[in-house]
């Protein structure tokens, strides 16, 4: 079975092709980078509409398949920015209708987890997903991926990007902050906000910006911002792994590229006897392959959606999605054993 997957929830339009035996045949993505300021949803959607034909063609040609040969079109229906989701859904519906292929609804966050498991060869991990738009600590339990912690306001990547922009650094700012943080010499106390299992970055961002205006050294601020923000994520991840007793910890999303965050989460994993894995950037960023692969898993369970019901879901939560393909091997093992 071959599935074409389309990603379009925010800044990236991507097409991927995955096979039922877990081979990624193509992963072609185009990211919208604003000239200045943050992502404007309508501008991003315009970018997606412009690049869609060439990205699709390029993915199919990389995979060496004609669209007639694919068995379904998987589309990320949410969560994400309305105009971007609509553009992607329009492309997917048009392809599904014209080529008479089933349409497979995919949740973007589920897809981040599934591709992380595939690429890192993990079975049942605790996943730390930190990107420009999401901050979620999740693991499988009872038929769904459950959220063991998330941001109450802005995402970790967004916090870093906004701070970087105000400091005059290029977009996206995460990598620049990481570099400057290495030159940090003095820790500047900043608000550390963990509420129950959730984190909040907006107060931290405001305080860091205030310190910037007050003339604190940028390197020290980058260092302190990273230490505080990453410690918050680690605290929540640590309680989650202690509670769930998962034996694998996977780090994904754009912010996964950060060496300091990797180092801190690796220590958490080791402390709890879990292996630690970082998803390579190609599959940690938003990408078409993750939608294609999750499409394969869903299609195997007959999960498709009629075109007329394929509404976008800008606020579609990770823990609202049944994932019947997870835990199958355990069920099979139990049945075999009995
Ligand atoms: P995504 O939304 O998954 O495409 O990830 C983009 C986010 O990852 C942006 O907020 C970037 O600033 C952030 N990012 C990328 N590389 C790094 C890094 N080395 N350190 C921190 N954040 C990063
Ligand atoms: Mg994402």
From TrEMBL:
Lipid biosynthesis in keyword set: no
Report the transmembrane regions from the record. none
Q: Which GO terms describe its molecular function?
A: iron ion binding; protein serine/threonine kinase activity; tRNA N(6)-L-threonylcarbamoyladenine synthase activity
Q: Where in the cell is it found?
A: Cytoplasm
Q: Which residues form the Gcp-like domain?
A: 24-293
Reported EC number(s) for this entry are 2.3.1.234
Note describing how the cofactor binds: Binds 1 Fe(2+) ion per subunit.
One GO cellular component this record assigns the protein to is: EKC/KEOPS complex
GO-annotated biological processes: tRNA threonylcarbamoyladenosine modification
Gene3D superfamilies per record? 3.30.420.40
User: Which prosthetic group or cofactor does it need?
Assistant: Fe(2+)
Q: Which reaction does it catalyse?
A: L-threonylcarbamoyladenylate + adenosine(37) in tRNA = N(6)-L-threonylcarbamoyladenosine(37) in tRNA + AMP + H(+)
Binding positions for Fe cation per the UniProt entry: 108, 112, 129, 286
Key words, A-Z: Acyltransferase, Cytoplasm, Iron, Kinase, Metal-binding, Transferase, tRNA processing
Chain residues that bind substrate = 129-133, 161, 174, 178, 258
Taken from the record, one Pfam family name reads: TsaD
EC top class named in words: transferase
User: What role does this protein play?
Assistant: Required for the formation of a threonylcarbamoyl group on adenosine at position 37 (t(6)A37) in tRNAs that read codons beginning with adenine. Is probably involved in the transfer of the threonylcarbamoyl moiety of threonylcarbamoyl-AMP (TC-AMP) to the N6 group of A37.
Q: Which family does it belong to?
A: Belongs to the KAE1 / TsaD family.
Q: What is this protein called?
A: tRNA N6-adenosine threonylcarbamoyltransferase
């Amino acid at each position: 079975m071959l599935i074409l997957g389309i990603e379009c929830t925010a800044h990236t339009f991507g097409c991927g092709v995955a096979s039922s035996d877990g081979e990624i045949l193509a992963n072609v993505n185009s990211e919208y980078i604003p000239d200045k300021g943050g992502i404007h949803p309508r501008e991003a959607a315009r970018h997606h509409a412009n690049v869609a034909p060439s990205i699709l063609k390029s993915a199919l040609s990389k995979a060496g398949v004609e669209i007639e040969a694919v068995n379904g079109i998987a589309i990320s229906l949410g969560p994400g920015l309305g105009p971007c989701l609509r553009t992607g859904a329009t492309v997917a519906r048009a392809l599904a209708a014209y080529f008479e292929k089933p349409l497979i609804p995919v949740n973007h966050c589920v897809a981040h987890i599934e591709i992380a498991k595939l690429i890192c060869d993990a079975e049942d991990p605790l996943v730390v997903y930190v990107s420009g738009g999401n901050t979620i600590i999740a693991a499988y339990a009872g038929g769904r991926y459950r959220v063991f912690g998330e941001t109450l306001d802005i995402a970790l990547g967004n916090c870093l990007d906004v701070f970087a922009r105000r400091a005059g650094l290029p977009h996206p700012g995460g990598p620049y902050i990481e570099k400057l943080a290495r030159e940090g010499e003095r820790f500047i106390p900043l608000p550390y906000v963990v509420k129950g299992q959730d984190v909040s970055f907006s107060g931290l961002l405001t305080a860091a910006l205030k310190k910037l205006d007050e003339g604190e050294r940028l390197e020290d601020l980058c260092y302190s911002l990273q230490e505080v923000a990453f410690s918050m994520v680690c605290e929540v991840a640590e309680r989650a792994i202690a509670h769930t007793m998962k034996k694998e910890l996977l780090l994904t999303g754009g912010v996964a590229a950060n060496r300091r965050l990797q180092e801190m989460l690796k220590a958490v994993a080791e402390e709890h006897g879990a292996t630690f894995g970082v998803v390579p950037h190609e599959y940690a960023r938003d990408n078409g392959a993750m939608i294609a692969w999750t499409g394969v898993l869903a299609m195997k369970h007959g999960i498709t959606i009629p075109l007329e019901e394929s509404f976008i879901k800008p606020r579609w939560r990770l823990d609202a999605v049944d994932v019947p393909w997870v835990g199958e091997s355990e069920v099979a093992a139990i049945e075999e054993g009995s």
